[in-house]
Structures are given as C-alpha cells and as structure tokens.
Amino acid sequence: SSTMSLSEAEVQSACGAWEKIYVDAEDNGTAVLVRMFTEHPDTKSYFTHFKGMDSAEEMKQSDQVRGHGKKVFSAINNMVQHLDNSEAFLGIVTPLGKKHATQLKIDPKNFRIICDIILQLMEEKFGGDCKASFEKVTNEICTHLNNIYKEEGW
C-alpha cells in the first residue's frame, strides 16, 4: 500500500502533466535552473561552475547548467514513474535527499523554490490545469525530502 496522498486519478493526471514538460527535458530543465539562478542568485553559490555567470544567456549556453537541468528533470521523472509505489518512490527520493543534505549541504528550501518554478513554467506553457495536477506531486517530493533532511539532523 502507498504512503502517498495521491489518488489513482491524481497520479494519472500528474503523469500527463509531467509528460508535456518532460518531452523537452534539457531545454525545460535548463529554463528552470536559469530562472532559479536569476531570481534567487544565492542558489548559484552551491555550483562552483555557475558562480561567475551573471547573464541568463550565458547560463542557457553553459553545458554545465544544461547538464544539471537535464539531471534534475531525469530525477523527477524517475519519481513520477513511481507515484503509485511509495517504496520505489522513496528508493529514489531517499538517496537523493541524503546526498544533498550530507555531501552537497544544499539548503532544503531550494527544493521548494525549484518545484515552484517548474509549476510556473507548466502554467505558462500548458495552462493552469496542468499546473494544478502536478502541484500535489511537488508537495510530496518536498515533504519527503524535508523528512530526510530532518533525519540527517538539519
């Protein structure tokens, strides 16, 4: 059984919403990171490669930014594929959370920032229904990540 608070119908519509944005994983992932770095410049401090980049154009062209954007979207994609199986979902979220908490020491508030930007982008590109159907998923992801951080003593 699932610890997730999503119904079967919600899982279906969330998967449909995610598919739309995941089709262009690298471009959309990059757009999300560039927006985060531009609107929340302190988030750049975690990425040694990106620190010196000030213009959005420069970031968009960067192989490192593009690579990480794609990586973020791939990780979320793995989670979305397992929304109906909490054990498998946690199997993906837990090591990711632990790594960001212990090795990378990323402030957990940044997960909420990145999720909110993904939701904004969904709304801009595909409308409010798309955003609404993915909102619960981002809440699940952030809740689980925050729990892992607590366990790691944050």
Automatic annotation (TrEMBL):
Keywords: Cytoplasm, Heme, Iron, Metal-binding, Muscle protein, Oxidoreductase, Oxygen transport, Transport. It catalyses: H2O2 + AH2 = A + 2 H2O; Fe(II)-heme b-[protein] + nitric oxide + O2 = Fe(III)-heme b-[protein] + nitrate; Fe(III)-heme b-[protein] + nitric oxide + H2O = Fe(II)-heme b-[protein] + nitrite + 2 H(+); 2 superoxide + 2 H(+) = H2O2 + O2. InterPro entries: Globin, Globin-like_sf, Globin/Proto, Globin_lamprey/hagfish, Myoglobin. GO terms for molecular function: heme binding; iron ion binding; oxygen binding; oxygen carrier activity; superoxide dismutase activity. Gene3D superfamilies: Globins. The keyword Iron applies. It holds the Pfam family Globin. The keyword Cytoplasm applies. It is found in: Cytoplasm, Sarcoplasm. Monomeric heme protein which primary function is to store oxygen and facilitate its diffusion within muscle tissues. Reversibly binds oxygen through a pentacoordinated heme iron and enables its timely and efficient release as needed during periods of heightened demand. Depending on the oxidative conditions of tissues and cells, and in addition to its ability to bind oxygen, it also has a nitrite reductase activity whereby it regulates the production of bioactive nitric oxide. Involved in oxygen transport from the lung to the various peripheral tissues. Belongs to the globin family. This is Myoglobin.
